[in-house]
Every structure is written in C-alpha cells, then in structure tokens.
Amino acid sequence: MLIPPNQIKISLITAPEFNLEYLWWLTILFFVLAVIYFIGVFVIRNRITSKNSRTKDKKVEFSPMINEFLFYEDSNTKEEKMNYLNLKVQIRELIKNNFDREVLTEVLLDLRKDLSGNSQSVLIELYQDLGLHHDAYEKLKSSKWQVVSSGILELTTMEVEDSYGLIVRFINHRQSTIRKQAEIAVVNLKEEGIKYFLDNTKYKIAEWQQLKLLDVLRHKPNYTPPQFGLWLTSTNTHVVLFALRLIKYYNQSDAEQSIITLLKHKKREIQAEAIECIKEFHFVNALLTLKLVYTKASHDIKISILDAIGELGTIADVPFLENLQLTERNFNIKGKVIGTLNKIDPERILPTKNIATTDFYDVELDELSPDFEGKSVEIHEEMPLYNTIDEIDTEIEVATVATSEEVENLSVSWSFNEDDISSQLTEEAVSEEITEEEFTEEELVEEVVFEEAGLDETASVDELVPLENRKINSIDDIDLSFLPHIKSDYSNEDNTEETEEAVAELLEHKAELEPEEELEEGFSFNFLPLVVDEITMQEEEEEEDVVPLEQEEFNPLFDLYDSSISYEHTEKVTENYSDGSEMIIEEIDWSALSAPMQEQNDNRVLITDADAEETIISFEDDGISFSPNFMPQEELDAMVLLENIAELGDCRELILLYQIIDEHSSDVVINRANELIQKFAYQAPRPSELFSDDHDLAESVFTEVYHLADDETKFMLLNEMMIVGDQKEIQLLESILESESKLLVEKATEVLDHIKAHLSNELETTTSSIDEEFIFDLDFELEMKEPTEQKNTSAREQGSTLFDQLCAMSNSLYNKKNG
Amino acid sequence: MGKRVLLADDDQLLASLLNFRLKKGGYSVHHSPNGKEVKEYLKNEMPDIIVSDIMMPYCSGIELIDYVRNELKSKTPIIIISSAGNEQNVLTAFELGANDFITKPVSPTELLVRIAREINK
User: Fold this and answer.
1) Were both Cys, which of A160, A210, A769, A785 would link to A155 (CB 3.0–4.6 Å)?
2) How many angstroms separate the CA of residue B49 from the nearest CA in chain A?
3) Which pLDDT band, with edges at 50, 70 and 90, does A1 fall under?
4) Do B17 and A107 touch (CB under 8 A)?
5) Interface predicted TM-score of the whole assembly (ipTM), two decimals
C-alpha cells in the first residue's frame, strides 16, 4: 500500500543532538592551549631578549679589554703593562663561563670582519691565545650540520691552520653545506689545500663555489699556484673544468696538448673552456683539432670554435670556412662563419641582403666618379688620336660620358711621365712630347656617346694597359671619361647590370694583378686604336706640346667613312694580357662593317691565336706600334657563349662546358671554360644529386623547394602535395619517409596514402594522362642542346637561375590549382 | 686637549675600538650611534673633524655631509667609512663635499693617519 505523498515528511536539515557540556569543555581546552601558547611565546621572547641584553652587556664589558689587547704596545708605560696583565687574568677568569666564551668569540669574529692590518693579526692571535678555537673543534664533532658548518667557518675566519687536518675530512661530506664550507676552509688554510681538494673531491663543484674558491685563492698573500694542468686528467669532470678555468686565470700555458685533447671531451662545458684557453694562449696547433671537432659539435660549441678559428686562423683556413658557408644551415652559425671569414680575410664577403641594385638609384655612376667630382681637368693640347677621330666621318655616336653641357666642363688630367712618354709614345709624323691634352666639345665633331658607365670604362682600361707601363696607384686615378664607347643595343638596365658585373670583374682582376704589377709613371693607350693599324708616334724631346697626328700618317684598320654599323649583332672583343688572361673590351659588331671599309684597309690584320698573345700596342725602337688583336670568329662565338653562361648559367651547364672544351683548341676558350666549370662545380645550393638518375625526384615540382625549406614550410608543402599532388610526388614523399623527422614522416605518410588513393580512383574513372598537363617540364636540360644563339635569348627571357625556376614553379603550381 | 673628533657609527664594537685608538692617538672623541644624535651634537658644537659611517639609522652619512655643508655651512673635514663595493655612495659623498673615505675592514692606524692629514691641511 502506497503512502500518500502529502503524508511523507522528510526533514531538509538533520543534525545529531549535541551535548552542550562537551562544548564548554572544548572551549576551556582551547583557552588553556591559547594561554600556554602565549606564555610560551612570552617566555621564549624574554629569554631571547634577556640573552641579547646580556650579550650586549658582555660585549660592552669585553670591548675595552679587547681594545687594550689589540693596541697593546711594548713601548707602553709600566702602569699600562700592569693593566694589560690584569686584564689578561681577568679575561681568562671570564671565559671559564661558556656564555662568556661564546660572547667573546662572537665579538672577535665581528671585529675580524671590520678590522684590517696589524689589528687583525693581533685579533687572530688573541683568539688562539684564549683557546677559543677548542670550542670550534668541539663543534666539528657535533651531529648537527649547522653546528659543524659554523665551527668550520669560525676556524676558517680565525685562520687556525692547525684545524686543517680536522676539516679536510669534510671535503667529501654528503651534506653540501658542510662540504662547501670545508672546501673553502681547506683552500684557505693552507697553500697545498687546493691540491688536496682537486685530488680528492668527488662531488660536483658548483659554478658559485668555483667563484668563491677562486676568490679565496686570489686574496691569498704571496700565493704560488701549482700547475693546474696536472688535474686535466682528473676523473671528476668538474675538477677538469675548474682546472681549465684556473689555468686560464693564472696563464699557465704549459698544458697545450692536454687542452687541445680536451676539445674532444664529451662535456660541452669542458669543450667550451678548452676553446677559451686555446684562444687565450693562442694555441695555433689546435686549429686542426678545432676543425675536426666542429662537425660533431653543438651549436654553441660551433660558434666558439669559429670564434677561435677567427682568432688563430690564417688564410689557409679560408677554404674550410667557405665550405662551412655553403653547408651550414643554421642562421647563427652561418653568420658566424661569414664573420670569421671576414675576420681572417677582411671584406672577403660583402653584404648581399637588402642591397639595392644600381639601377635603383637615378644617379649615373659617372657622376659619382672621382674624376667628375673633384678633379679640375685641363687639356692644353689636342690629342692626335682624337684628331683622327675627328676626320672619321661615321655614324657612330660618340659622346663623352656626360651630357654635352657637361663635356664643356669635363676635363681630363693626363698625368704622363714625360720621360716615359718620350720613350714610348712615338710616331713618325708626330714627334712631340706629350704633356697634357685638352679637348672640348667643338673638337669632337662626331656625336660621341658614352653610354657605358665610367667604372665599366675604367675596367676596360685597367685591363688593357700593359702592366709594365703603369704607374697608377688606383683605378680611380685614371680619368677615362673622355673615351668613346660604341653604343650597343642593350637597354640601360642591361648596361647597369653589365656595369655591376664589370665592376666586380674589375675588382677581381685588380686584386689578382696588384701584387705583380709595378706601376710606373704614365700609361699606354692600347685600348684606343682598336681600329688603327701600325700607328706609331715619334717624339721630339725639345718640344713639350703635343702635335696632332697627321691624317696621312694615320692608317686606320678600316675606314668608317660612309659606313654604318649595325648594332643588332654585337660581339665581344677580347684583349689579351701578356700573362694570357683576357678581358672583354667592348661589344662591337665587327662583322657588320661594310665591304668598302675593308677594302680601304688592306693592311688590316686578322688576329690569330698566336697574335692573341701579343699586346695591342708594342713599343719597339722608341716607337709605338698599334696592332689589332682580334679573335677568330669561332673562338669569339665560343667566348660569347661562355660569357653568357657565366652570366646566366649554373651547374647544369657543366656538360655544355665540357663539350666546349672538347670542341675548341684555343687556350683562351679552354681556360675560360675551365674557370666556369670550377665555378659551377662549386655551387652547392642546387642539390644536383636529386636530379641524377639515381634519384629521379626532379619530376616533382616540390622537390627543390622542399629541400630548401624549413620544417614549417615543409608541412605547408606537404599540405599542398595532398591537394595537388599526383604520381610524381610519390618518389619525393618516399624519400621524405626515409630521411625526415617523425612529424614530417607522419605527415608524408598521410599525404602518400592520400595520393595513392587518389591515383587509384583516377585510374578507375579516367584514362587521360596527366603527364601532358604536368606543369614542371623543366626544359633547361633541353636548352643546352639547342643552338647557342637561341639559348642565349631563351636563357634571358625564361631565366635559368634558381630564382627563376622557383618563380616558374610557383606560377605553375598556381596555374595548376586554378585549372 | 687634543683635536675634537666626532665619530658617527652605529656599530658599537667598531666605534668603541676606533674611539679607543683615537683617544690613544691624542684626540678627543665624541661618539654618536645614529644620525639624529649627530645632528643634535653638531647644532651645539662643531668638531675639528667628522668621521662618519655611510650607513646609519635616522640619518645616513650622505645626509650628514649635506647637512654639514649646506645647512650648517661648515667646512669641517669629513671622512667617510664605507663598506667595500659601495663606491657609488662614496662618489656621491665626494660630490657633496666629503674630504676622504676609508673602506671596511678598517685599519685603525690608517684612519689615524688620514685624520691627522685632514686636520693638518
């Protein structure tokens, strides 16, 4: 039978009944406990206060006694001496009381901190005279670590040497406070304490403890440190580390081999300290070991090693560093490598990041050249060679570097050595001694256009002037702005790029030539009469003025009268140094010269390989003879191709370069090709092995980007692969599975599964091949098989640099994603 | 009666020791354990030299120099006793007009020499 709900009574709060009597008892209990507590606090506080008061009183009582003891002198009066003896008796009576002994000890310890000099010594003697150190000995026997520690501290402070034997046994105490106190005491009390400590300690020596120990040693008067190299073989690595630091502090450089060996120690701290020692003592013999250790070292050790190499290294270590520069991936280490390179060989590597290109600035380089800036150029005489130019009526646009207005102000300083010129620059018709030459705009009848930047010109000149005829301290010393340049069909942008390259090339050659060349006063002009054959100049020593060349004496190689030059096809004319090196002078379309011009110049000399070795200007019998220095067409083509490869190519051109070497016999071509082979073979960023037959990963558009990316980017690329990937990504993904980190492997597995599933679905649904649409048909290998001319143009248009390919890949990806 | 030295130091033991040594050296020494007492004393009497610890209750040694130089307009020589590593305070003391300083641990003999030198200037 159910009970009706309204009859059910459940109390919401139920509490047991409590006997109030217990409550009263509990109240009384808490009250009593509180009273006991407060009484206890009161009693203890009073005891402490009274003890402090007693101690203070005792200190006041002891203070004059101690003062008397401290400042007692043998020269005191008899009364003072009697007083001193009475005090001694009095104090001995007082210290029979334990409390008094404690207070006296405390007073002496306090004063020990505040006093120095003779007073301190007297204080220490007093402490031992009164036998207070025996209390400290008793403390050493205590079972409480704090008592033992205070006993050791007391004995150390009061410099009780006899306690050394007692304290030594605490060196390996398991309680760290006692152990550390004992370590300091042992080192402090006796000179040989440091040896005992280093020989016997088994525990870690903390950094702070090392500092304290070093501080103790530093403040020891007349301390002679032992040879800390003896402890470099210790089994306790902390002892080795401390010994290295002590070696460095005390400049003990006699343990060179041990320190070098410690570079291979497993502990980073010891490696780092060894490197510091090597730097400090300039152990050059350590360089080999430093390089050996580098590969397996941690990042911080690598940086330390690089720092050490920077300190100790020579130019012989540059290849090692250059190799590191190419292989290191860590940003900090790479930066350090570059810094080290520049430290060994200053300014070996120049800044490249965030540097604007020259065309970013609107100012022409010529305007900034030193010639233009500051030199007051005066040309007094007409230059004969320019007279000849005057009379050549051509369509060549010849101009000065500056505008026509600037030409008026433009002047050229001819810093010729008169003697040199008199002996070198001679011609049959012109036999005056050249001192200075002045020309103005009016004298330049033709439109002379200097399109090339000034530095480019100077580069050419620098390369053309025979080394033996120079006396120019720097390239800036030569004012070459007057030189005519043949206008090419390159755009300004191209010129700017070429200018930059020419500058770089110039600097290279300059660096190569500087040690060899002994510059002399004046310079030759073999760069000028490229179109002139066998023009000689004779000098007359009596006259200083320059006499213009007679027109009839001037026999140009080809006449430019009524001839036009097509600039559509340009070639590079090369000039050969006596040492066999060659440089590009100017791009001139020689083949475009008209036939009549050739006919008028029967004495034109076509240069052969043998001629290529000769200089353009030769000085014989006090005369100057000009001879053209042309290459055979085939060789010229090859050089043009090589220069294009140098400009645009990379390691993929190696095959072509080898072909060129096989096909040509000219030393100039072969040398240049070999240079380029060396250059491209040294290029590391492109992992060429990835494109080999063994690793046919090139099919994936992601391959190259993936291998250059960081982990985060790799994940993004894997995500992209999941979206757009197909069969071609499989090999890349499989390679990732073998080589990458766990997370990347997981992701790659996921992508691989996805692609495989996707491919199997595709095979079922469609038979159309995606290969035709596949975007990454890199045609750069094919390009090499194409004719050279086509390659040159296509290389420029499509770009064959790594950056161009990356851009092409990203574009292709984008196109593929958007159908 | 020797020259009057005001010794301002809250460390009773050291002050007592220096007091003893200075008295033994022929000086008349007045010891004040805190800055407040020093100021009170200086209002009534100006010693020949003041030897003061930098760290004192109520009034630091720096404030004491400032008080003597700027409020009392006195040129009485002041020697500062400072702990090692307290160089910044020493520099401040010199800027305010301290004549010399000596670092702890103190050699009483050295202090005696410095006091004599300052007084005899």
Assistant:
1) A160
2) 21
3) low
4) no
5) 0.90
